[in-house]
Specification:
The chain is mainly alpha-helical. It has three helices and no strands. The chain folds into two domains: 51 residues; 46 residues. The radius of gyration is 23 Å and the shape is flat. The relative contact order is 0.06.
Amino acid sequence: MNKGHTTEIVVQVLAIAAYVNYNKLNKSNALSLNLMNVIILFRLSRFVSILTEVYTYKIILETMNRFALPFWTLNLSLYMIFYIFAYIGMIIFGGMLT
């Protein structure tokens, strides 16, 4: 059995266990709700890994990965600019507003 099949079996067993636990505890336990959210996230990530097998979606996902780094850099730069202006504003106008 290869790694993909083992992961598939583990995710399915965890999903069934989480569903049984969720229904057994009358949907009121916070741990059960968090476990269900994690299992749903794992099942959706499996779907994305299946999409990489389709050539068209593989091209789209590779393009999104290539654009991720420049957007990350841009967002980090904007965050630093906003932080610097906020800090300067606190120094200049600190204590003036009450």
